[in-house]
């Protein structure tokens, strides 16, 4: 790798390490590299091997891309209503992402808006994970296996996503629900 990349990796490593108040010795002890080698990396004079980069990034709980400068932008934890990413489906369902992209998040909170009679279709689906739903407006019918559950404003449900499930708006108005999936999909 060229000198510019060495400088980027070194600068990013030093910044991340200092932000987290981690010493070179601590990284050295946990990543099987010498403290003096890490110092050379931070000064842009040496470049770790891919396996060492992986070891350092795993210890710091970041991606190798973070060390290479690909993810150095600090994400704003606030998502303003007008900034929500919107995904519209042809079946009358609109979904809004309620969080910023983050490769480390453990759950995916979403806002669903379902037009009258909007549904996921006749076929139930299943996948790995768990789901929590809170109806904030309207009436939502959720089917788990062959059991139907009717949820009105303020009602909630929690279930394992491996159960075959489907849902539909059975109100004459738009139904809105906060939906939290784990693991995240978006």
What gap, in angstroms, lies between the N and C termini?
33 Å
**CATH C-level name of the largest domain:** Mainly Beta
Radius of gyration: 23 Å
Strand content: 25-35%
Q: What class do helices, strands and sheet pairing give?
A: alpha+beta
Number of discrete domains: 2
The percentage helix is: 25-40%
Name of the CATH superfamily of the largest domain: Jelly Rolls
CATH fold description of the largest domain = Jelly Rolls
Overview of this protein structure:
The protein is of the alpha+beta class and 186 residues long. The protein has two domains: 65 residues, 434 Repressor (Amino-terminal Domain) (Orthogonal Bundle), CATH 1.10.260; 102 residues, Jelly Rolls (Sandwich), CATH 2.60.120. The chain is built from five helices and nine strands. The protein has a six-stranded antiparallel beta sheet, with no helix packed on it. The protein has a three-stranded antiparallel beta sheet with strand order 6-5-8, with no helix packed on it. 15% of the residues are buried. The mean pLDDT is 88.
Task: List its traits.
186 residues, 434 Repressor (Amino-terminal Domain), alpha+beta, Jelly Rolls, single chain, 5 helices
Brief summary of the model shown:
The protein is built from five helices and nine strands. By secondary structure, it is α+β, with helices and mostly antiparallel strands. It has a six-stranded antiparallel beta sheet, with no helix packed on it. Strands 6-5-8 form a three-stranded antiparallel beta sheet, with no helix packed on it.
Reconstruct the topology from this structure.
Elements: H1 3-19, H2 24-31, H3 35-42, H4 50-60, H5 64-67, E1 85-88, E2 93-97, E3 108-114, E4 130-137, E5 139-144, E6 147-152, E7 156-160, E8 165-169, E9 175-182
Antiparallel strand pairs: 1-2, 2-3, 3-9, 4-7, 4-9, 5-6, 5-8
């Amino acid at each position: 790798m060229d000198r510019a990349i060495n400088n980027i990796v070194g600068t990013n490593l030093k910044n991340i390490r200092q932000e987290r108040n981690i010493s070179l010795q601590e990284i050295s002890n946990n990543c099987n590299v010498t403290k003096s080698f890490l110092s050379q990396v931070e000064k842009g004079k040496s470049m770790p091997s891919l396996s060492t980069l992986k070891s350092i990034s795993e210890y710091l709980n970041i991606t190798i891309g973070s060390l290479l400068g690909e993810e150095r932008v600090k994400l704003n934890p606030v998502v303003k209503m007008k900034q929500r990413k919107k995904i519209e489906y042809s079946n009358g369902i609109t979904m809004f992402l309620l969080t910023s992209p983050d490769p480390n998040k453990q759950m995916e909170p979403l806002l669903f808006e379902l037009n009258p009679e909007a549904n996921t279709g006749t076929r139930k689906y299943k996948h790995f994970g768990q789901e929590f739903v809170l109806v904030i407006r309207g009436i939502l019918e959720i089917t788990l296996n062959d059991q139907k559950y009717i949820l009105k404003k303020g009602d909630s449900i929690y279930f394992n996503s491996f159960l075959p499930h489907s849902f539909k708006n059975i109100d004459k108005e738009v139904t809105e629900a906060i939906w939290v999936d784990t693991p995240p999909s978006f």
